[in-house]
Specification:
Strand content: 15-25%
Order of helices and strands: HHHEEHEHEEEHHEEHEEEHEHHHHHH
Strand order of the largest sheet: 10-11-3-12
Radius of gyration: 29 Å
Number of helices: 15
Distance between the termini: 72 Å
Helix content: 40-55%
CATH topology of the domain at 42-86 and 241-303: PTS-regulatory domain, PRD
């Protein structure tokens, strides 16, 4: 049975004459004149204030210390479309049922990656018997509901080169090979300490914070696909600052929205009041072919169809030599190449061509 279509509150509001009038006024304020160089204006509106932003790479995120990249370095990360951000982070929101402090802390504990080193009181090398001894922290094991035998099973599954035994809360590892060196034991120690025990790989920290009556889990490290699968997480509002991860998990439209949100948030935090429409234009250009493209020489600027336009940006000689070798022709359709050759640029009044019949 087909359900009745639910009423759209926005459609109802739009029928109100006062709302219509306000929408029309707002639309007219946003319209630009034919021939206006919106790309140049957008570039100027973003780049000039960006030079006034702080050069400090980090700032404290939240009431507890999570240091995330902000300011000019963050804008460079976004517009250069870096594959991985310097400090990946997530804001994880909870659904209505789990929106309380206790559940938020439980989910944060499940999300945070815990390694074997977090369950150790100490680790030491027994040089006399040439073995590694790990002393387990009983309180930590109880907190995370893990037994010593479970830790032994995990080590046995991961480290095949050592014989493992447990006595009380001390685990002993002895390398199987005949020639055992101190360096070999040190390598074994490092490998054992970094064994993944619980949580989601890559999420180093997870703190719980109250924001506008919502409990939010802020993380250092990102793994959006795994987090969205967890019960209690609100999939519609949780987000990552890794635009490539968002593109993989949620699609290119979500990545476009993330570029806009990250850029405008970074600029607003620096006191820069750039019109969001300029960022909308840049984000559209970066994602319009279904993939995230950087703005620089290996992205949008390097993929322009015009030879002179590519040569104008960077690597001038390379582009001109390739164009000459391939016999490329420049149709002189855009602004930059017409300025280079001294023609009237097709911008502003230059977009109009008049023919006079004598």
């Amino acid at each position: 049975m087909v359900k009745d279509k639910l009423p759209d509150p926005y459609a109802e509001a739009a029928e109100d004459p006062k709302v219509k009038k306000k929408l029309l006024e707002r639309y007219n304020r946003m319209v630009y004149e034919p021939g206006e160089a919106v790309g140049v204006v957008a570039a100027q509106s973003i780049s000039e204030p960006a030079t006034q932003t702080t050069l400090r790479s980090y700032h404290r995120e939240g009431k507890v210390g999570l240091e995330v990249t902000q300011g000019l370095p963050r804008l460079i990360e976004l517009f250069d479309a870096k594959k991985t951000p310097r400090t990946p982070a997530m804001d994880i929101y909870l659904d209505a049922e789990h929106n309380n402090k206790e559940d938020a802390r439980k989910i944060a504990a499940k999300i945070k990656e815990t390694k074997l080193k977090h369950f150790l009181v100490s680790d030491s090398l027994d040089i006399l018997n040439m073995k590694l001894e790990l002393e387990l922290d009983k309180k930590q094991l109880e907190t995370y509901d893990i037994t010593g035998d479970a830790i032994v099973a995990l080590i046995s599954k991961t480290i095949k080169t050592a014989d493992i035994s447990i006595s009380g809360n001390i685990i002993s590892l002895e390398l199987k090979k005949e020639d055992v060196s101190v360096k070999g034991l040190q390598d074994l120690r490092v490998k054992a300490r970094n064994l993944h025990v619980k949580g989601i790989k890559g999420i180093e920290q997870a703190i719980v914070e109250l924001q506008d009556e919502c409990w939010v889990i802020k993380t250092l490290g990102a793994n959006l696909a795994r987090v969205l699968e967890m019960p209690g997480v609100d999939m519609t509002t949780s987000r990552s600052n890794d635009i490539y991860e968002i593109a993989r998990v949620l699609g290119i439209e979500a990545a476009r929205n993330s570029i806009i949100k990250e850029a405008i948030t970074t600029m607003r935090e620096q006191g820069v009041d750039t019109d969001v429409r300029h960022l909308l234009l840049v984000a559209d250009a970066m994602t319009n072919d279904g993939e995230i493209r950087a703005i620089g020489r290996y992205g949008l600027a390097g993929r322009k169809s015009s030879v002179l336009s590519r040569a104008n940006f960077e690597e001038t000689v390379k582009h001109l030599i390739w164009a000459a070798a391939n016999g490329d022709i420049d149709p002189l359709e855009s602004v930059i190449e017409n300025i280079i050759v001294g023609n009237m640029a097709p911008v502003g009044t230059g977009t109009i061509k008049l023919k006079i019949k004598e």
